[in-house]
Task: structure prediction
Amino acid sequence: MRFIKPIALTFLLPSLYCTTPSTAATSFRAEARAILAQDTVNWNQNLPFDNEVVKGKLKNGFTYYIRRNVEPEKRVTMYLANKVGSILETEDQLGLAHFLEHMNFNGLKHFPKNELVDYLQKAGVRFGSDLNAYTGFDETVYQLPIPSDDPELLKNGLQVMRDWAQDALLTTEEIDKERGIVMQEMRGGRGVGQRLQDQYFPIVLNGSRYSKRLPIGTEKIITTFNPETIRKFHQDWYRPDLQSIIIVGDIDVKDMEERVKALFSDLKTPAKKLERTKYSVDLLNKNQFIAITDPELPYTVAQIMIKSKEEKTVTVKDYRTQLLISAFNTMVAERFSEIMQQADAPFMQAGGSISGFIAGLDVFSLMVVSKAKSIGSGLQKDDDRV
Result:
């Protein structure tokens, strides 16, 4: 944190020399120059990569990151990150990135049918809370935390990651069984929140491809797609140049690196490799408004979203900016919390923050849940409160 020192002195030193203005200015400049001359941190210097992380890329493009971390003791967590999500789906594949995530638990080369879940649960790995995965617009990530002091379990855990990378069986029988599971998940999410989202997403996402590629997909595709369609999606996109493994835990890093090289070097890339298009949400430089209602929504919510290009954290200066954003978010959250605890609070709930959004965008968002028939008081500026 040495790079913050000159900033602090800029504010502190004037008060130390307030009795003689001319001398104070001279002394301050000399003091500041001395500190800046000694400080080796350059605002534009790139942040260093963690030297405790072993990073490598295999000839097939597969990337690995391995780090030793002894807490918790005798545990390791592995992640397989695929740069593959619903944004890559064609019109006849809607929902298949997410469906494929399900299928990776329903039969792998070394763990047919339900053997994977059965084996890991017997080893004490809980499905859902430990063993898990998610599919987003741009990525699908698999997570496996296991004991690191059991050589057989550690070996099989790595084999699971390898099978997830490219060896899902995708049998027609298991695909047809899973259709009902995915439909149950879809219908379970078709509440008021989803109905509202269906209306505001085209506005919030500016009519982009993202607004038409929700990971859950559509009922028509999920219930009728030909098994060959999902097999093609798997072959096209589950490939080593779009995959990385992250391994963190109480492990021998060098040994783990050799295991990864041995297991993942034979991952195949399709002969005809599709281009992984990068999609975006265009900023329209204009205000947009939408008012939506639903009979099951019991309160009134107002939200303002201001989108901007993502602020990447690359340099020391960028990191300082992120620290300031974090401090800002904390202060805003604390202030709204104080107001909500007042007896005459003008709203039921409120919040605001700057955060990452989607497709290379950040967003500054303000939200208020108004009291009954008093949306105006929740939105009104009050200098004594805010």
Observations:
- Residues 43 and 317 are 5 Å apart (CA to CA).
- Strands lie at 53-57, 63-68, 75-82, 132-135, 140-147, 243-249, 301-309, 347-356, 361-370.
- DSSP finds twelve helices and nine strands in the chain.
